[in-house]
Design a protein that fits this description.
The protein is 29% helix and 21% strand. The protein has 248 residues and is an alpha/beta fold.
């Protein structure tokens, strides 16, 4: 099985259940952990949904949305929600991270998945770019949101990536943290502007990089200023551990 193919339970014949477009699932066959944010270091399962509403130049998962470089017929699979729940329930790991792409692009079909995961004793974290107002059905106990607004320095068009109503909905929910990718002091100044404008808290900063060397260098460059602003700081533990290997 190649790294980009989900380790999946085959849907039943004639299964008419709700389906999601999935890029990959991992963490059962090869155990891993959440590498970023407040749950950094916690054992985790990952459901990476396909498709995104942005096109960031520095995205590290372009196979989930960039069809100029990747074939969606090879990079995505339709999963029944019931099979995703069964896959997650096959592991004793409690934390399930639903990521992307941008998972909320498919949010109309997400409440049954979340309900099934919670009923199976899991807790859920969404990794989202913060451009889509979350459905009230997702704002329930056991669900948290790691909201990662994309800055211009990340190769994003801020006219599209910074959406005030969505950010303010997350900020008012009490279920979100705001995790920004940064590579310079100028990025920290921009984060401060956005946090003040939209009342974003708590703020987490994560160094940009897809190699341990780049992450370590940027981590050290930013550490003093992040500490001075009394923000939280996270590395990218999965990259340090697995060298950005897909599916880990």
């Amino acid at each position: 099985m190649t790294a980009h193919q989900p380790s999946r339970v085959e849907p039943g014949i004639g299964d008419a259940g709700i389906r999601l477009i999935v890029a990959e699932c991992f963490g059962v066959d090869l155990p891993t952990f959440q590498g970023e944010g407040p749950s950094c270091g916690h054992p985790a399962l990952f459901i990476r949904l396909s498709r995104c509403n942005l096109a960031c130049a520095k995205c590290d998962t372009p196979y989930s949305w960039d069809w100029s470089r990747f074939d969606p017929r090879e990079e995505s699979t339709k999963w029944a929600v019931a099979d995703l729940v069964a896959w997650a329930a096959s592991s004793p790991v409690e934390l399930v991270v639903i990521t992307g792409g941008e998972p909320l692009v498919q949010q109309a079909r997400l409440p049954p998945l979340v309900q099934g995961l919670l009923a199976a004793g899991k807790r859920v974290e969404f990794e989202t770019n913060g451009t889509i107002v979350p459905a009230t059905e997702l704002m329930v106990d056991g669900v948290r949101f790691n909201v990662s607004p994309k800055l211009a320095s990340f190769g994003a068009e801020e006219a599209k990536s910074i959406v005030a109503p969505a950010l303010e909905a997350f900020a008012g929910s009490g279920r979100a943290v705001f995790k920004f990718v940064a590579s310079s002091a100028a990025d920290l100044d921009r984060i401060a502007e956005l946090a003040a404008a939209h009342r974003l808290a708590p703020v987490w900063v994560m160094p940009e990089g897809t190699s341990s060397e780049a992450i370590t260098a940027t981590f050290r460059t930013l550490a003093g200023e992040v500490a001075a602003r009394h923000w939280c700081f996270t590395t990218r533990l999965h990259v340090l551990a697995f060298a950005d290997t897909r599916g880990r």
